[in-house]
Specification:
By secondary structure, the chain is an all-alpha fold. Helices cover about 70% and strands about 0% of the residues. The chain is built from 5 helices and no strands.
Length: about 150
């Protein structure tokens, strides 16, 4: 029930197609975990407009006060830069791991895993995960009263 509701609320670019496993029945545990991670990441990223709406009054208050200006704006810019750097490093690590795994796969007679498109999907999720984590923590921080 929860997956159906989540699938209805998520945009098309967030929904991963569920494919049957090699035995024709169920997906592997790794595929299920990856799908759950992608769904939770999309849920976190959908909070971004709410975080922006909660941040705008704080940024306006910073701009109009005589106190040292831009604390909330500085936080916003710094965390985006850090999330970008972490995401790019994570995506590159996934691609490097796949590249290192490709020759043993070829030499054992299997098709390299980077040809299946799963590497691109994993690297996209890894690149967006730090941003989703930051959005979730900001939403929790800004939604607390006081």
């Amino acid at each position: 029930m929860k997956a159906a509701v989540l699938q209805e609320q998520t945009p098309d670019w967030c929904v991963l197609a569920e494919q049957p496993g090699p035995d024709g029945g169920t997906m592997s545990t790794r595929k299920k975990r990856h799908t759950q991670n992608a769904f939770s990441l999309c849920g976190d990223l959908m909070l971004a407009p709410a975080v922006v709406a909660m941040r705008l009054p704080l940024i306006a208050l910073d701009a109009s006060s005589r106190a040292p200006k831009g604390i909330e704006a500085m936080l916003a810019v710094n965390e985006k830069a850090l999330a970008f750097a972490e995401g790019m490093a994570a995506a590159q690590l996934v691609i490097l791991r796949t590249a290192l795994r490709s020759w043993p796969e070829v030499l054992s007679g299997r098709s390299p895993s980077f040809l299946s498109g799963g590497t691109l999907n994993e690297s996209m999720v890894a690149a967006l995960k730090p941003a989703g984590r930051r959005v979730r923590t900001n939403f929790n921080r800004l939604s607390k009263p006081g």
